[in-house]
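Summary: Need help interpreting a holo structure output

Steps to reproduce:
1. Submit the protein chain below together with the SMILES for NAP.
2. Request a joint structure prediction with the ligand placed.
3. Inspect the structure token block that comes back.

Expected: a single structure record containing both the chain and the bound molecule.
Actual: see attached output.

Input attached:
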Amino acid sequence: MIKKNVAIVGVTGYTGLELVRILSTHPGFAISAVTSRSLAGQALQEIYPFFQHTAYGTIPLTIPEPELVSRDSELVFLAVPHGRAMDLAASFLELGVKVVDLSADFRINDPGIYFSWYGQKHSQPGLLAKAAYGIPEIYAREIAPASITANPGCYPTSAILALYPALKNRLIKPRGIIIDSKSGTSGAGRTPKTSTLFCEVTDSFKAYNIGRHRHTPEMEQELAKACGEDLIISFSPHLVPMNRGILSTCYAELEKKISEQDIRQAYKRFYRNSPWIRIMPGGKLPETRWVRGTMFCDLGIVRDERTGRLVVVSCIDNLCRGASGQAVANANIMCGFDPQSGLDHQPVMP
Ligand SMILES: NC(=O)c1ccc[n+]([C@@H]2O[C@H](COP(=O)([O-])OP(=O)(O)OC[C@H]3O[C@@H](n4cnc5c(N)ncnc54)[C@H](OP(=O)(O)O)[C@@H]3O)[C@@H](O)[C@H]2O)c1
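--- attached output ---
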């Protein structure tokens, strides 16, 4: 197979590094360029010695200049902060390079909602309608012809996969949904901040940004599409002292009388062609270590008899399924490869 060249803008971050890990064994993609502003000029193996003796160890980091990066690349992964990605995406598209944007810049369809949650005017509102929302299980048809895909946020990936089948099948009420999520610290990125220092995170457990986390409008937008009406969710994120992983516990009132077994069957039907979604058998709940470093989303389904609620526990790896693995799945679809190509990783246990 002739490999397609792809570039990574922001290779020194956690999602950039995860992209190199995944792409280094991908049968259809070759890494043609990687960028960093702070470490341009160095080789990848100088920053990450474990890349020595690999095909990409000696690849030099360049500045994130679209003209330079696009020279040999068909597709670019933007693994940079929101606010920066929007103009980079526009430049790459103008140069004829497809874009998978890992930031939030193209996830929110309405630029007014983007402004109210991200505090920044969108500089490329005309591109928003062109961007497919990159959850392969739901939007593969829209992703395939797209020149730009908005890779979903990590929390939204876990919550949307957990609730979409129940809303679509009208098993739950759209009102009063609660999403309670716990994330490992790599979710906050590699750029140093006091709140993610070892002593601030280890041996402790905290909630943050309750009711105002920026992933809230993204979840509301996508879950509204599932049920066909606007909805408001309560979203409570937490930081746990582990490197990778997200566990979201989602609560919703059941719409009708239905057994737990039938709910599980409805989920299995919805995800019948989705090998990355694993529905746990009755009585089993997922754990983050079972999905570590993989594309799996493990779902545990409980019908709470006493409260009349459906509780869905969803586990993903924030860097793989919640970011770079999903980005590669989207690139696979955009380039005509099997969505699973290069993404058959299994977790390292225990
Ligand atoms: N971490 C996660 O679990 C996760 C999950 C889903 C989505 N995301 C999103 O993915 C993106 C990357 O996240 P991350 O966690 O990898 O962040 P990170 O660890 O902080 O890395 C950011 C990268 O972007 C580069 N960069 C920063 N500012 C830039 C600018 N103005 N222009 C060009 N490059 C710039 C940095 O390198 P230099 O400073 O050297 O240029 C670095 O390589 C973010 O938008 C984030 O919200 C992250």
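--- end attachment ---

Reviewer comment: The first helix runs from residue 14 to 23. The chain has a mean pLDDT of 97.
Status: needs-info
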